[in-house]
Predict the structure.
Amino acid sequence: MESIRRLAPGTPLREGLENILRAKTGALIVIGDNKDVMNLVDGGFNINMDLTPAYMYELAKMDGAIILSSDAKKILYANTQLIPDPSIPSSETGIRHRTAERVARQTGLIVISISQRRNIITIYKGYSKYIVQDTNKILNKANQAIQTLEKYKKVLDQAMTNLTALEFEDLVTIYDVAVVIQRTEMVMKIVGEIDKYIRELGNEGRLVNMQLEELLVNVKEDGEQIIKDYIHDSRIDDILHASREIKYLSSDELLDLTNICKILGYYGGIDVLLDTPVHPRGYRMLSKIQRLPMAIIHKVVIHFGNFQKILKATTDELDDVEGIGEIRARTIKEGLRRVQEIAALDRHIR
């Protein structure tokens, strides 16, 4: 993904590649001049000048390869011949692409090959290969993915609103928790796809990125707080492990809610398991109160043990927690009251 980002629209390198593509001249470009690649270089001449799209286009008219600096800001050599190890396997048929693939595998650097006949840009890095797609096609895919994300986000919001209301009523089951985590991970998987498009779009992806940021407000944070609230063992290493395990669940595995329950530390038959009552610790609700540091939230949770006890605590009882004070105690009481009112209103509207 980092290699693709470096070739994104709006960069001088991408503009130079597009010029070569339009002229149908073809090119072979290596980004990096370490010892490994220089040992493969034969002939050519030293340039050592700033990269501009015009210079790249003119130098690509010659048959040899172009060597760029590792930051792709300078053209170091042009019209060189690359002689990689012929014993390195290659799946390519054309000479230029076969050379590019072998050089990438031998050096681990980014090698770009532009096909004169097929009119495509191919990136090689190590044993990976990627064909650069047309910007308009990527933009269309990104916009479709944003529309899908909006639908999934609405479903997540409904599940989250329902969970919030149930937490205040102390009626949460593991099913309610698993559904929210499932929806959160589904949203994050779509986000991962959109993020790839944004990287590849470069400057052209600004609007898509703005839409993504607007849709993602508090999604990741709320998901993490829910795991902290409901994981069977609240040790930090267990929370981090559970977060990773849930993240690595496939789309099919996410559909089975028992997989999420087991990661959280709950076991049993599916009918009994999903109906099991659970009680939040209170991390997510307290994090919704403005200007309440996580260190203070943690102290409150540790002191009271669960959200219902925090909710029922008086101002004086909250004041007894180290680092709270009378003002912050009132802020917590008032903040939780507002969160409850908003949750009730959202639930009624939905």
Notes: The radius of gyration is 28 Å.
